[in-house]
Design brief:
This protein is of the alpha+beta class. Helices cover 29% and strands 19% of the residues. The protein is built from 18 helices and 25 strands. The strands form eight sheets. It has a five-stranded mixed sheet with strand order 20-19-21-17-22.
């Protein structure tokens, strides 16, 4: 019997629905995780988000990447996610063949017109192209530039015509069949597989993006373990387990780290996810967030630094908290803090010697040792380079050439003609008023940091103002290089130092490079290094980039932070991954 094509598609959809239903996970709607974010997200379109930690945290739960990370493996180790296995790599590392699992479904949405929608290779091809679409201004675009055969030409054509042709065939992104994606690179690139595990590469459906073109940030539709059911910007995010999710069995092996044995005993063999609902409150004020955890309103939380003296004896829980069954998970995170200068600013921007001297004096005026004691309560170490511990490219022997030295900073300003006026504050060399603006967010920690900055800048005769706005507003402005000075933290998106260094890459200005810093020497070294595997040659280039940033006084490098997570006794399976943000799908709740 010959079936009409439409009827064949309908039968396939029904079979797909049946096969998916048999694989439903065991999420329990009565198991609810209560969490808090210390700052708001900026939406859940992973291509458009400004690398917000909080957006990607949620995005990891909603969208499926082809690759992910083994939950327990340390150092971080890639593992298949929506694939049947790890990709086939050939042609000397330039060709990748990805084979998708069959039967994975997107969550139901009106964009699919009532028909179950299977995840196919074309969705990943579309997602990759979408990252490079100039109209999306994706902060991750620079990670893909120059890598995939034919994709840069497609981008160039889009810039000329004003429209990205998603249907144009290119040799670098092909779908030989419904479940196979082939990607061809211009040259071997050790970071490419990591990019396929980054939330930006989480599959989206073209019909969803086109239907909700103006609202993709608030209407995420994916194939991951959770789906968004309520969103109150800057206040509340609620996720529930995706009823169409395929599920998996918790079966991870220890890398020999302390605590793994008990974690495995709790979780081994469980069908995941177990948690049926995740409720996230946005609580920017540190004291309020601590009170929420102390009052059993949160199931786990990152210990705020101002509460450290109350809760920890250096690196251990005080008895009153240990006796409650609270667990401490402590590690040096692959993160960095810094204070950015906008190179678009007529006050601190520019590459003339007097502007470099001004930025250098500012950097030398600030004591991070004081910040560590007074604002971080010992839970950080001074950063020596932009690449932190825990990722490839970190050099434990490297030492920055810039250090705290307010006396030298004053001499430097004197030498370049920044003279003090009758009020004790300096002017530009031409006598015009000089006023710095250091933006911050309305948290108690930021208030203290601004007090430290004011004292530092007063000490070298620089007048400063300290505008306060929400973190989301500051991040948006900083992403356009509009803030003269702004403190920000960055966390590893992939376990490689290029993830941090691309924040200073000139062509990425306004798209992840939030200072719009541009240096031909830095850019050349970066372009060479990102095509190399980690090793002595790349290390030399990294050192050259570090020194170039210091020579240009491009940023005020801050701290590598120690993170302390407090976990209530009923939460099982908790372990913070150095790269993955979201761990809810790996957890269980057992209250007795």
């Amino acid at each position: 019997m010959t079936l009409h094509p439409h009827f064949r598609h309908l039968c396939a959809a029904l079979l797909l629905a049946a096969s998916s239903s048999s694989a439903l996970a065991a999420a329990d709607p009565a198991k609810v995780l209560h969490l808090a974010f210390e700052a708001p997200d900026d939406g859940f379109d992973m291509v458009k988000t400004n690398n917000s930690l909080y957006s990607t945290w949620v995005g990891e739960a909603i969208f499926d990447t082809m690759l992910t990370y083994d939950y327990l493996a340390r150092p971080a180790k890639l593992a298949p996610n929506s694939l049947d296995g790890m990709p086939e790599v050939s042609d000397g590392g330039k060709t990748y063949l990805f084979h998708l699992k069959k039967g994975i479904r997107f969550t139901s949405d009106p964009a699919f017109k009532g028909v179950p929608r299977e995840l196919v290779a074309a969705d990943y091809a579309y997602t990759i192209k979408r990252i490079l679409d100039p109209k999306n201004r994706s902060p991750q675009a620079s990670s893909y530039e120059g890598k995939i055969i034919g994709l840069d030409a497609l981008v160039a054509a889009a810039k000329k015509t004003g429209k990205f042709d998603y249907d144009a065939p290119i040799a670098g992104v092909e779908t030989p069949d419904r479940y196979t994606l082939r990607v061809r690179l211009n040259a071997p690139d050790q970071t490419f597989q990591y990019l396929m595990a980054h939330p930006t590469a989480g599959a989206v459906a073209r019909e969803v993006i086109e239907m909700y073109a103006a609202n993709t940030n608030t209407h995420p539709v994916g194939t991951g373990p959770y789906q968004l059911v309520q969103y109150v910007p800057r206040s509340k995010i609620i996720l529930q387990a995706n009823p169409d999710y395929r599920g998996f069995v918790w079966n991870f092996k220890s890398s020999g780290e302390p605590g793994d044995a008990e974690l495995i005993r709790q979780m081994q063999g469980k069908t995941m996810p177990q948690v049926g609902r995740v409720e996230i409150s946005i609580i920017e004020e540190e004291q309020s967030r601590w009170l929420a955890f102390a009052g059993n309103q949160l199931d786990f939380d990152l210990l705020t630094e101002n509460v450290v003296p109350r809760v920890l004896d250096i690196d251990k829980l005080k008895p009153e908290y240990a006796n409650q069954g609270i667990r401490l998970y402590r590690y040096i995170a692959p993160e960095i803090t810094e204070t950015l200068f906008s190179f678009k600013s007529p006050v601190v921007g520019g590459m003339t010697n007097d502007k470099i001297a001004l930025r250098r004096a500012i950097a030398m005026s600030y004591s991070y040792d004081e910040e560590i004691v007074k604002a971080r309560f010992g839970q950080a170490v001074k950063a020596q380079a932009p690449v932190p511990p825990g990722v490839a490219g970190f050099d434990p022997s490297y030492r920055s050439s810039l250090s705290y030295d307010p006396a030298l900073a004053n001499k430097l300003l004197d030498h370049f003609g920044y003279r003090r006026g009758p009020d004790g504050f300096r002017t530009f060399p031409d006598g015009q008023p000089l006023v710095l603006q250091v933006n911050s967010s309305p948290s108690s920690r930021d208030k203290l940091l601004m007090e430290l900055w004011k004292r530092a800048l007063d000490g070298i005769g620089l007048h400063a103002e300290f505008p306060v706005s929400s973190f989301a507003d500051n991040l948006k402005a900083a992403s356009n290089c509009e803030l003269m000075m702004f403190g920000l933290g960055g966390s590893a998106g992939i376990p490689d130092g290029s993830d941090f260094l691309e924040s200073y890459y000139g062509p990425n200005g306004g798209q992840g490079n939030r200072s719009c810093y541009a240096s031909k020497a830095f850019d050349t070294a970066f372009e060479q290094a990102r095509q190399m595997p980690d090793g002595p040659q790349r290390k030399q280039l990294y050192t050259a980039m570090f020194r170039q940033l210091e020579a240009d006084s491009a940023t005020v490098l801050g701290l590598w932070r120690v993170r302390n997570w407090l976990v209530r006794p009923w939460v099982q399976g908790f372990k913070k991954h150095p790269i993955m943000r979201e761990n809810w799908q790996y957890l269980d709740i057992e209250k007795h």
